[in-house]
Amino acid sequence: QIYANAKDASAAVAKEIADLIRSKQKEGKPCVLGLATGSSPKTVYAQLIKMHREEGLSFKNVISFNLDEYYPMQPDSIHSYVRFMREQLFDHVDIPQENYFIPDGTVPATMIADFAHRYDNKINAMGGIDFQLLGIGGNGHIGFNEPGSLINSRTRLMTLDHSTRAAAAMEFGGLHQVPKKAITMGVASIINAKRVVLLAWGERKAPMIKAAVEGPVTELVPASYLQAHPNVAFFVDERAANDL
Ligand code: GLP
Questions:
Q1: Hey, which CATH number is domain 2-237, 3.40.50.12780, 3.40.50.1360, 3.40.50.720, 1.20.140.10?
Q2: Where on the tree of life does the source sit, at the highest rank (predicted)?
Q3: Distance CA 24, CA 44 (A)
Q4: For the segment 139-171, what is each residue's pLDDT rounded down to a tens digit?
Q5: Does the model's pTM come out above 0.90?
Q6: Which of 30, 61, 145, 213 is most buried, judging by how many CB atoms fall within 10 Å of its CB?
Q7: What are the residue ranges spanned by the domains of the chain?
Q8: What is the pLDDT of residue 48?
């Protein structure tokens, strides 16, 4: 789906999410969202907050699972994805605090595998993810599934690529401040979602959008795994679609 700009594309994505939340409400069911961080989803979250304020869109039946968190990371750090999600969405809507889950950047190293297993189990216990929102890294990663991630990978600890840490260096005030690891939902955890929507804005995403959409399905470009998904859409602006 190619839009003139990020704002128009984000409005369309937010509408899709709102429609899903409302239809689940009508059925008296929870709506399970897989949510992403990074700059790309910010405009979608802003639009959802607007719909909450202006149209009374309620998030009371929303259960959400975030893709990833840096490791180690304290939830109250300005760099945490917990903080990001609260600032960008959760604190501005009526989602109950016990309804959102974000990988815990404070679990002791020896407990990560167990934590990750429980995270996947919790998603499964909710009946899986209805709608998964994604961004794409400059190296083709989804969540923090770096190149080399396997299609059957589950939630786990990942060592971040140099390019991923370099992209975050400014935010953290220098490369040496960027955590070397992250806990991320796996590729399988992501592609098991019933619907997947990937967002990409701007020229710098154009080569990876081309590789993910038109290139071979390869572990070298984890976003290319989405080609096999029966219900996936890439919402991009014209600049990110430039190489297609
Ligand atoms: C980080 C996140 C990804 C995100 C990527 C791209 O690596 N873990 O989930 O997709 O950044 O970020 P942006 O949307 O800012 O380009």
A1: 3.40.50.1360
A2: Bacteria
A3: 20
A4: 999 999 999 999 999 999 999 999 999 999 999
A5: yes
A6: 145
A7: 2-237
A8: 98
